[in-house]
């Protein structure tokens, strides 16, 4: 429902929009498989051997969602996101002892693969003779590290990779993750770094077949994707620690918009980033602070995620401690 700008929609209207979105979305093809994997992953990490406590679990969303223009999709709207932020953050969360659900756009940057070349298959491998292929000496360290660390994290039950492509898949999977990790209360974190489409074509009004170009200019109406952040926070997983991102290209409005998102969606933290400087610095906005986080080149760290995740882990620990006090679970 379109409202004049400046008017807030009520929770009832938002709930109705969200219900309509899910009711009309094409059902997730592999929902049973996703659901089983999630259940098993959360169960494994719910009980730490001997301690009776739960491991901290973070859902990192990463990469951009697509908006199909045809049901038998030939064309779609996409965005710039490479998934680098999500992949790097996943590595640091794992290093900090978290279990990570990596909800990522298919084909985007993967954890531990950041230092591999763009086309790893063709650039890392070389043919020795008829029956032997080997890793090129130059890339051997990066390949070894990517394979060993990824396999170890998956084998230890600490990394679950769930791929999505469309906005429909992403939001259905995000909801499934939330419903599953709700059971671990404040030990759950959402780190919403995915670049989520703001506008889409509802499935029912979408052309079934390839749109024909013979009939002149294309006139198409996109409707707004309902923002699910508030329901995620309030209804889907109310005890989870929620961090969302705010991306702008105009740095003059960035912090104001991040502040607004913090209050409107009741996030615990919003990470504000500007498109061109996003790899060098971000500002973490909380209810009473604005913390500038930069890559620390003098310490040999060439990404911003190292310091960012350190800060978030620290704040999450305080949140868990306070929640445990409140619920008497010390
Ligand atoms: O992937 P990289 O190339 O490394 O880039 C990282 C990044 C710039 C994509 C990342 O740091 C980032 O800013 N991600 C959020 C981008 C975005 O969608 O910003 P937004 O202002 O449109 O949305 C704000 C928040 O609302 C986001 O947390 C988003 O997940 C969420 N959202 C957005 C739209 C929508 N319809 N529903 C949502 O829940």
UniProtKB/TrEMBL annotation:
The keyword Amino-acid biosynthesis does not apply. One of its GO terms (biological process) is coenzyme A biosynthetic process. InterPro entries: CoaB-like_sf (IPR035929), DNA/pantothenate-metab_flavo_C (IPR007085). Residues 175-297 form the DNA/pantothenate metabolism flavoprotein C-terminal domain. It comes from the Eukaryota. Pathway: Cofactor biosynthesis; coenzyme A biosynthesis; CoA from (R)-pantothenate: step 2/5. Keywords: Coenzyme A biosynthesis. Belongs to the PPC synthetase family. GO terms for molecular function: phosphopantothenate--cysteine ligase activity. This is DNA/pantothenate metabolism flavoprotein C-terminal domain-containing protein. The keyword Transferase does not apply. Pfam families: DFP. The lineage of its organism: Eukaryota, Viridiplantae, Streptophyta, Embryophyta, Tracheophyta. PANTHER family: CORNICHON-RELATED.
């Amino acid at each position: 429902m379109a409202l004049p700008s400046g008017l807030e929609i009520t929770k009832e209207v938002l709930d109705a929009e969200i219900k309509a979105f899910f009711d009309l979305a094409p059902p997730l093809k592999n929902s049973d498989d996703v659901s089983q994997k999630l259940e098993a992953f959360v169960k494994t990490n719910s009980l730490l051997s001997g301690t009776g406590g739960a491991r901290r679990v973070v859902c990192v969303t990463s990469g951009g969602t697509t908006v199909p223009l045809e049901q038998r999709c030939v064309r779609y709207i996409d965005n710039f996101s490479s998934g680098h932020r999500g992949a790097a953050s996943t590595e640091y969360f794992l290093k900090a002892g978290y279990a990570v659900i990596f909800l990522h756009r298919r084909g985007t940057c993967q954890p531990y693969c950041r230092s591999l070349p763009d086309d790893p298959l063709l650039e890392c491998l070389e043919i020795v003779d008829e029956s032997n292929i080997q890793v090129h000496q130059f890339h051997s360290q990066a390949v070894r590290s990517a394979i060993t660390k990824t396999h170890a994290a998956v084998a230890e039950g600490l990394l679950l990779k769930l791929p999505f492509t469309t906005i429909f898949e992403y939001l259905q999977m995000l909801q499934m993750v939330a419903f599953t990790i709700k059971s671990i209360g404040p030990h759950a974190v959402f780190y919403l770094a995915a670049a989520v489409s703001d506008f889409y074509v509802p499935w029912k009004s979408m052309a079934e077949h390839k749109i024909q170009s013979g009939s002149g200019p294309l006139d198409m109406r996109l409707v707004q994707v309902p923002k699910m952040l508030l329901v995620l926070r309030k209804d889907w997983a109310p005890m989870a620690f929620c961090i969302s991102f705010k991306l702008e290209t105009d740095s003059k409005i960035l912090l104001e918009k991040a502040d607004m998102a913090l209050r409107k969606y009741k996030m615990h933290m919003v990470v504000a980033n500007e498109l061109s400087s996003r790899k060098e610095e971000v500002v973490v906005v909380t209810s009473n602070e604005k913390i500038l986080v930069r890559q620390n080149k003098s310490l040999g760290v060439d990404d911003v995620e190292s310091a960012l995740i350190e800060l978030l882990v620290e704040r999450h620990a305080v949140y868990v401690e306070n929640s445990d006090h409140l619920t008497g679970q010390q």
